[in-house]
Write a structure and sequence with these properties.
By secondary structure, this protein is mainly alpha-helical. It has 20 helices and no strands. The chain is globular.
Amino acid sequence: MIEPVSRTGRAARIPPASLLRQLLQIPVIVAALGYFVDIYDLLLFSIVRVQSLRDLGVPEADMLPTGIYLINTQMAGLLIGGILWGVLGDKRGRLSVLFGSILIYSLANIANGFVTSVDQYAVLRLIAGIGLAGELGAGITLVAEVLPKEIRGYGTSLVASVGLLGAVLAYFIAEEFAWRNAYFIGGGLGLFLLILRVSVYESGIFTRLKEKPVSRGNFFRLFASRSQFLKYLRCILIGLPVWFVAGILMTFSPEFGQALELDGPVVAGKAVMWEYIGLAVGDLSSGLISQYLNSRKKVLALFLLLTAACVVVYLYIPLHTTTAFYALCVALGFSVGYWALFVTIAAEQFGTNLRATVATTVPNFVRGSINLMTPLFLLFRAQFGILNGAALLGLLTLAIAFLGLWKMEETFGKDLNFLEE
């Protein structure tokens, strides 16, 4: 018997069979599958980067700068799309974003399979990035509003855990198929999912909101007051360690492996795959622990401390073998497995008329923070070496995350049927 506890302290007894029925609603299942395809497409370029650029005739000396250019282009699309889809999610509805975003990134990824130049590649990665930006925020917002408040933590964790496994599929598809076919498969999966979404219904909370004369999706209202802005900023800051691990420790894992003098070379794609396996398990675990402790903040603090410990082991404890290194990638992924919890917290902080805007922009601004972390990492590496430089950047991101968590409101069990005045 599951007994989630409300904010009043009274337990709501939910039998396991009933809990399962409430969780496995069509919106939850489709949101999970949507995020699965989203992650597949988001990471596919990183996995097929070298193969695709070689086929396009990019010289080996230009491989890294060209790859960075294309990744930054995709990231620019995520930042633009984060604001665009967030505003549309509050103005037109959560479903409009789920339909529109997946259609755009599916068609863009199919088109990626036909590129013949780097410039074409860049344009399509920009368009794909815009499409990819809407999936997670709209899905988490819809699930949070559809499910009873006592169990929405289970639902959002399920969405993220299933979704993150898309990285594993992307790795194996890229291993078995040519890079163009890998893009075709990703786009085809998205279009198939679009058919499934016909049966998804809109959030009742948003449907009732549309009947009220209230401003919806006004992005600039997040900066209307100091308290509003700080609340929004805290939501972003707590997510930074996730992308420090993914964007620095995993992206540059071959260089870290060399610095650690392992017994063989580290494959970045494999390190990312193992990290995302850990991330999926961590997301599910953080959601379950949050339900057990009746707290978001306590679990977030616990996972941030675990991240700090894993980063120290990664950088300073001799592992000697690549096998042990990949195992640590799983542990690191688990330690930052509060991604769904972090987006859920953002969604719960704000009223229905701004909820999709916040839940969609926050994760994309965190992803975009890699454009600040990368030059800082290169600066620190030049000054202190690759291991100490990464440690300094990790300390900075973790300190900022704890600072963001410090005065954040506890939102476990919060009623989401309210507005931002």
